[in-house]
Amino acid sequence: MNMARIAGTVVSGTRADGNGSSRYLLVEDCDQWGKGRNDFLVALDLVGAERGQMVLVAQGSSCRWVKEAEDRPIDTLVVAIVETVDEHGVVAYRE
Question: What's the pLDDT tens digit per position in 17-64?
């Protein structure tokens, strides 16, 4: 899993993934402090994340282990909203 920050949404009127009610988000890879790395992906949102929040994203074939992505062409999922990151006893990030 990687940490990312929600940068926005991706809207498509025509979809072949079978997840018509799910939302796609534009996520920017970030460090433990929440600083963006200018590297973006599109991810299926499973947790209701909002713009600016730090999230955990899962990538690859393991994404198809959840019901919402099973047997569908999905390879990046938002799976958690990060509340706190503790690095060696120092709070690096807090929502």
Answer: 666 667 999 999 999 999 999 999 999 999 999 999 999 999 998 887
Cα Rg, the chain, nearest whole Å = 14
For the chain, the domains span 2-12+21-94
With beta carbons less than 8 A apart as the criterion, state whether 70 and 64 touch: yes
* CA 43-48-50 angle, 5° bins: 80
Burial 43-71 (b: 16+ CB within 10 A, else e): bbbbeebeeebbbbbbeeeebbeeebbee
The model carries a pTM of: 0.87
Q: Give residue 12's pLDDT.
A: 81
2-12+21-94: which CATH number, 2.40.50.220, 1.20.140.10, 2.40.50.140, 2.60.120.10? 2.40.50.220
